[in-house]
Amino acid sequence: MTTAQASTLAELTEMINAVLGDFATDQPVTMDTTFRDDLGMESIDVVSLAGRLQARYGDTVNFAHFVAQLDLETVGELRVGQLVEHIDTSLAAAGAGDR
Amino acid sequence: MTTVRANGITLHVQRLDPVAPALPGGGPPPTVVLIHGMASDTMASWYFTMAEPLARAGLPTVLYDLRGHGRSERPATGYALDDLVDDLAALLAELAVTGPLLLFGNSFGGTVAFGYAARHPERVAGIVAVESSPPTPEWMRRVRTRLHRVAERLPRAGAVAEIGARRGPVAARRAADTGRMLADTTILAELPASRLPSAERLAAIRCPVLCLYGGESAVADLAPTVPGLLPQARVVVLPGEKHSVLIDRPETVRRHVFAWLTERCGLAVAHPAAP
Question: pTM for this one?
Answer without folding.
Answer: 0.93
